[in-house]
Amino acid sequence: EAATIKIIYGNEILHNVASSGLQSAKQIITDPSFEAAALGDMAHLALDLSIFFKKEVPIINRLVVVIGRVLSILSDYIPDHKISPDELGFQTIMLVMSTQLLLKHVTLVLKSQRGSSSEPYVSRDKRAYCMLFR
Predict the structure, then answer these.
(1) What is this structure's pTM?
(2) Using CA atoms, how far apart are residues 70 and 107, in angstroms rounded to an integer?
C-alpha cells in the first residue's frame, strides 16, 4: 500500500511539473519580446547562411537574403508595433535591393529555360568587337 501511494503521489508531482512547464512554455512563446528575439535570430541565421549558397545556388542565396530581410523587419515591428524611421528606411532599401536582385536572377533563369534567342546581343557584340579591334 505504501508503494502504491508513493507511485500515485509521484505521478501527481510529475503531472503538476509537466503542466506547469507547459504553461510556462506557452507564456514564453506568446511573449512579444520572445517572438522578436526569435525572429531576429532567424534573420541573422538566414543572412549568415546566405554566404554558403553564394556560388553553388545563387537563386537560393537571393531568396534566403530576402527572407532574412523580411524577418529582420518583423523582429523590429513585433514587440511594440513600431519601427524607428531610420531602421524602416534602411531595412526597406535593403529589402528592395534584395528583391530586385532576386527578380533579376529569376528572370534570367526563366529566359534561359525558355530558350529565348540572344541574337540582338550577339550581333551588337560582334559590331563592338569589329569597331574596337580593326
Answers:
(1) 0.59
(2) 21
Identity at 124, one-letter amino acid code: R
Better-predicted residue by pLDDT, 58 or 8: 58
3-state secondary structure of 29: helix
d(CA 13, CA 36): 34
DSSP state of 52: T
**Mean pLDDT score of the chain, rounded to an integer?**
75
Report the distance separating Cα 38 and Cα 74, nearest Å. Answer: 10
Write the DSSP symbol of residue 80. T
- Span 57-99, pLDDT tens digits: 788 888 889 999 998 898 888 888 888 899 889 999 999 999 9
Residue 79 amino acid letter: P
Q: How far is the C-alpha of 84 from the C-alpha of 132, rounded, in Å?
A: 52
- Nearest-angstrom CA–CA distance, 36 and 71: 9
Question: Which cell goes with 38?
Answer: 526569435
